[in-house]
Specification:
It contains nine helices and five strands, in the order αβαβαααβαβαβαα. Helix 6 links the parallel strand 3 and strand 4. Helix 5 packs parallel to helix 6. It has a five-stranded parallel β-sheet, sandwiched between helices. Helix content is about 45%, strand content about 15%. It starts with 14 loop residues before the first helix and ends with a helix. The chain is an alpha/beta fold and about 210 residues long. The radius of gyration is 17 Å and the shape is globular.
């Protein structure tokens, strides 16, 4: 489901990593890459829900988002929760019965939709906005969906910051953005839990289960 992700009872504070994530607001793209069990989603959900520096939109990618029409609509819906002034013709275009999956040049169409969304945000977003896309590995190999996400990252207006959370590196090249100093990386080594944090997670999880 698109929108704002609700904090889970077992979410723990990781202030040093949350401060690192604040740097996302100085970059166009932030990549949080680590395998399962490193707390990517819980870290990002806490940061996105509590940072006073920006508003946040959230979409957890699934196998359905491998279809261009689905991912464009889902991201647009997530953004509309934070930016209700997005133009109705944009929403109608991505949500209409034909959707964006018509035509012959799907990669070009994906880039065009990303551009339209970024232009609309540039005109109507008055403050910093973070778009978190979780489980990006779900669209790995889906060329059109990857082109759409890549277009959002490359065409993002100054106030839009894309955060990708994935078990693998982004499924599109980011070398140019990285060379421009527009990419922030958080790796598995940085996300690894300390012994104290591991104990806190266990305590919080057991306590939450006991309260059910």
């Amino acid at each position: 489901m698109p929108g704002r992700r609700r904090l889970q009872p077992s979410t723990i504070a990781r202030p040093y990593l949350e401060r690192r994530l604040d740097d996302a607001l100085e970059r166009r793209l932030t990549c949080v890459v680590a395998g399962p069990g490193f707390g990517k989603t819980t870290l990002l959900s806490r940061w996105a829900a509590t940072t006073p520096l920006a508003i946040s939109a959230w979409h957890g990618l699934t196998a359905g988002d491998r279809t261009l029409a689905v991912v464009v609509r889902a991201v647009t819906d997530a953004l509309r929760l934070c930016v209700p002034g997005l133009p109705t013709d944009l929403v109608a275009a991505v949500s209409g019965p034909r959707g964006p999956d018509t035509g012959t040049d799907e990669a070009g169409r994906a880039q065009a939709y990303a551009g339209r969304i970024c232009e609309a945000l540039a005109d109507r977003q008055p403050r910093q906005l973070v778009l978190v896309l979780d489980d990006v590995e779900a669209i790995d190999g889906a060329a059109e969906s990857c082109a759409f996400v890549a277009g959002l990252c490359r065409q993002a207006p100054d106030l839009l910051h894309v955060v990708l959370s994935s078990r693998r590196d982004p499924p599109f090249p980011v070398a140019r953005l990285r060379g421009q100093g527009q990419v922030r990386d958080l790796s598995a080594g940085e996300l690894a839990f300390t012994p104290d944090e591991t104990a806190e997670v266990v305590h919080a999880t057991v306590g939450a289960a006991a309260g059910d």
